[in-house]
Design goal:
By secondary structure, the chain is mainly alpha-helical. Helices cover 69% and strands 5% of the residues.
Length: 608
Amino acid sequence: MKSCGVDILGMLVAKVLTRYKHLLCLVAVAVFLVFLPTINLFFTKDLNWRDVATMPGRGMWSYYEARVREIVNGHPFMGNPYFLEHNNEIAPAFFLADWLAAIPRLLGMSLEGGATVNLLFWSLIFVFLVYGILRGMNVSKTASVVGAGLSYFSVFYMMARPVSMQIVFPFYLFFLLTFLFWIKDTTNKKRSALLVLASIASFYIYTYLWQIVVIILGLTGGYWLIVREKDKVIRLIKMLGFIIIFSAPLFVYTYRQITHPYYWETFRRMGFMTTHMPFAETFYSGRWIILMILVWLLSFWWSKELRANQPYKTSLIFVAISGLSLIIASASNIITGKEIELAGHIVRFVWLWLPLTLVVFLFFVKNNWMNFKFFSLSKKFIILILILMCFYGAGIYYKRSFLMLSRKQQAIQNYIDENQRTSAVLEWLENGEKDPVVIWIDDDSQSAIEGYITAATKHYVLFSIGGTLHLVSNQEVEERYLVSNYFNKLSLADLKNDFNLYAGLADAVHLYKTHNRKVILCRFFQLDKLGYDCGEKTDAFTLKGEKYFTDLYDQYTKEIVPNIGRYLKKYHVAYFIKDRRVDKDIDAGKIGMERVYYDDNFEVYKIK
């Protein structure tokens, strides 16, 4: 009987493995890629469970984990995870992704456990959705498994990043999947409902994602108008009505955001500026999209059989519209004049789009080899060159992934070391203070303790670049920066070196580079001969003006340093943490600080 039972169980297992082998392969691929950055550590370090649970989902992504902590600690609108005084503010962008990432911790999981569960869950969703898209484009099951793995590896570093693209990519893929099946049959109500759901979700998940979705739907409507399929246009308009209605809460919340007194100051620190000039990344990533679409179009035009092949035609529409949407979104500031690192964020979707569409095309070539075989030699040569160029583009992204893989391995090792260094002082702070307090961290410290405080404890910090990404005035950000550097005896040169920390991306990086590109283009086209003043190339400090920095220096030396106690009280600072690796005399007694904790790594002073 026992032998019979074993035989039956073996038969059931064999049947399941045979029937669902491709899905099981998908799971295996996802799990392998998730733990790929950490495999070598099992052979090089002594690891405990806490380390193993932490490694897959962690790197130095504490900004996103701090946002999750804020939700878990009872601030549903995610205010400011770094500055105590602003923790009940509204978020500068919508935050459904943060809420989804917070679910494991709301269910009682630890920071490490929640990060690991999220990474595994969303990675599985990712590969299954890619698999679904490839199967929907008539790619074989085996090739779809391979394509899902290749697509994941091209963006694995972003998938390891809590909240951000870890959740955004699956929602993008969900939209692409529903869009693909909908354009195959626009009369199907279930497919229409799913596309509406995916579109609405994009509005609440990620600002750049809903822009892509709107452009895709707009291009689709435009295409159907051109080919005079008015019935499909009418169905699309009806769907847009539902999307707008159910996205209304987002529009109301967005109005609250943009009318906040510090909204535009915050967005300027994030990189917002007014310019009609596209960033270089638009051209760098856009060229691969154009080449990929061109491969599909030329094959379609040159083959009568492919033109009659409905699956190929549907795939061509899907590839062309989804690809062009990325270029348009990346370069939309050419029309709107509003730029906030568009190209730098949209290119993340290109990393995923290019290998996915390349896999589909190669499989079509394999299945329709006879059609391609009868192309003339010149046409074959053109197709081959274009494909090789697309491979080169994909190779650039894969090279980046390999480089990031080694960096992530190092980041994980650093994290384990820092985790061991900071665990004792963090435990002391968490247990010693019942209510959240503000902690002042030595700005010269190379320790990651700031990130651990905001991600793993209930406490806040005096200054952090993460806090500047939320709704705070420029004046307060500058003041917090200066106060946090009280012991560092800042010079005018130091203020300039740290410009990006308190002024943000627009003033410190993008504005002067955009100005210089205009000068270069003006001179290249010799517009000065037509009477146009091309101007001179500059740097961030000259563009901002020397007075800005001298005023900050005067504020630091004449106002903040002599009155440090008043400013520490203003920002409710309770403790100062010194990293003992930094050899610096902080003269604690001068400002009334008393040492209350120390270990081999840190000293903690209570501010009286």
